[in-house]
Amino acid sequence: MSRKQEIECIIIGTLLCSTEEDNFFSCCECSVTEGMFTDEVNRRIFRMVVEMNAQGMSEVNPLTIYERYGKEVEDICYRMCELSSQYSFLHRKTQYNERQFLLYHGYGYTPHYTDVTFDDYVNRFIQDYYYDESK
After folding, report:
1. Which parts of the chain sit beneath pLDDT 70?
2. Domains of the chain with bracketed CATH
3. Which of 25, 43, 75, 125 could form a disulfide with 37 if both were Cys (CB 3.0 to 4.6 A apart)?
4. pTM value > 0.85
5. What residues contact 104, with CB distance under 8 A and at least 6 apart?
């Protein structure tokens, strides 16, 4: 998987972890469009996230999508679960920082915790998209 594809998955995986308190869609609702996604499943999920947020549903995850769309999404339930658990920004950042913590306590290395934000990933995604479009 290329870095661009990975960032695309991180965007979708994070959107699938939105709660009423932390609605990640607000970070990309004005700048990311469905057409920016190269993967058809990611495009489909993004379309549903947009629809649900437009209807005032800010808690978006594989379960709420299944409850809303039912049989229409049965073919992508596994993929939504994989994206939300393996590619969400919060999961990735926590995993990275835990490794840094363990290296420090296990081997005495100076930890280098990440200060990357979800907005940084959204910005990179948009930059990559427009760079590819300009070619």
Report:
1. none
2. 3-86+118-134 (1.10.860)
3. 43
4. yes
5. 110, 111
